């Protein structure tokens, strides 16, 4: 009995989402790095992050300290171990492409494609930092772990959102990055995630059509990368999606409501802009993880292995 052929809708939607994310990163770079008004807003938010005193800043500073070589190596090693224990070695390649592709893209954008110069008074003159390498690394390591797990992904996905959010905000609190750097990094990670899901989905569909044509029998179904979608997946994806839209809407409205012209020395305006940006970072991260849970394409069942004769 041949397996059903997965729909083409999810791979195409993943590809479209990847393109939208890539365009969004480009537009963000042009606005936040390439215009005086964008640089002033970035500077205002960064000043608010450095001036903020509270639990958000405390937790965020701890989180960014955890984005270290040993921690990231441990997450990636756990990802590989889970893939091998679940006997899905073919998922190592797309996950590797995701992590390497996103992080290399971030470095190319930062050091080759985007240059920064102060375009107005009150702007700190620093080397280009768009997008954030720390945030890209944390986000891609976490999403690789989520995609490598089975049912535990419904717990790891929200935890991954919280860790990525805290690490991203932490780079602002310690003064390593501007807010646009963090949002841009999430965009890069989301673009590569959706691209990999699209290509993997197209490959899975091609394989299913080939197996359906040959009529070869199959064993238990799988989903690539990952495992069968459950009701819990859908519930968590819905909750993350709602939280993501709410965070993005709230943050965008608060930023749009800032009084003009921006007063870079106004502490109240700095803190208001920082809190709004934290909502945007959290919203974009939650929306991205919701898409990850929703866009995984059903895989082709594995070929049944013949029993070994003693």
TrEMBL record:
A Pfam cross-reference name? PAP2
Residue ranges of domain Phosphatidic acid phosphatase type 2/haloperoxidase in the record: 63-197
Q: Does the keyword rRNA-binding apply?
A: no
Fetch the Gene3D superfamilies from UniProt.
Answer: Phosphatidic acid phosphatase type 2/haloperoxidase
Task: Report what the protein is called.
Answer: Membrane-associated phospholipid phosphatase
Specify whether Transmembrane helix is a keyword of the entry.
yes
Tell me which species this is from: Brachybacterium aquaticum
Q: Which UniProt keywords apply?
A: Membrane, Transmembrane, Transmembrane helix
| Entry-linked InterPro entries | PAP2/HPO, PAP2/HPO_sf
Q: Give me the segments passing through the membrane.
A: 62-85, 92-109, 129-148, 155-176, 182-202, 231-253, 273-295
Where on the tree of life does the source sit, at the highest rank?
A: Bacteria
């Amino acid at each position: 009995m041949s397996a059903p052929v997965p729909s083409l809708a999810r791979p195409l939607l993943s590809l479209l989402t990847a393109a939208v994310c890539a365009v969004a990163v480009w537009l963000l770079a042009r606005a936040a790095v390439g215009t005086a008004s964008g640089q002033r807003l970035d500077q205002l938010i960064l000043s608010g992050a450095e001036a903020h005193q509270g639990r958000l800043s405390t937790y965020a500073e701890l989180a960014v300290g955890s984005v270290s070589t040993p921690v990231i190596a441990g997450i990636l090693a756990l990802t590989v171990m889970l893939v091998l224990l679940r006997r899905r070695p073919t998922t190592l390649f797309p996950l590797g492409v995701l992590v390497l592709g996103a992080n290399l893209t971030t470095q190319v954008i930062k050091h080759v494609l985007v240059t920064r110069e102060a375009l107005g008074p009150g702007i700190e003159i620093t080397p280009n930092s768009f997008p954030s390498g720390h945030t890209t690394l944390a986000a891609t390591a976490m999403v690789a772990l989520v995609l490598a797990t089975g049912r535990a992904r419904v717990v790891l996905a929200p935890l991954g959102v919280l860790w990525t959010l805290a690490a991203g905000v932490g780079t602002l609190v310690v003064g390593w990055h501007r807010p646009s750097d963090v949002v841009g990094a999430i965009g890069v990670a989301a673009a590569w995630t959706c691209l990999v899901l699209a290509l993997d989905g197209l490959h899975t569909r091609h394989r299913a059509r080939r197996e359906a044509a040959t009529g070869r029998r199959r064993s238990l179904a799988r989903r690539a990368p990952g495992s069968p979608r459950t009701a819990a997946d859908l519930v968590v994806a819905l909750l993350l999606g709602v939280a993501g839209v709410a965070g993005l809407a709230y943050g965008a409205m608060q930023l749009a409501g800032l009084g003009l012209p921006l007063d870079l020395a106004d502490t109240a305006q700095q803190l208001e802009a920082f809190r709004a940006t934290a909502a945007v970072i959290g919203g974009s991260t939650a929306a991205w993880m919701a898409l990850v849970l929703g866009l995984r394409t059903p895989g082709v069942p594995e070929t049944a292995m013949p029993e070994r004769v003693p």
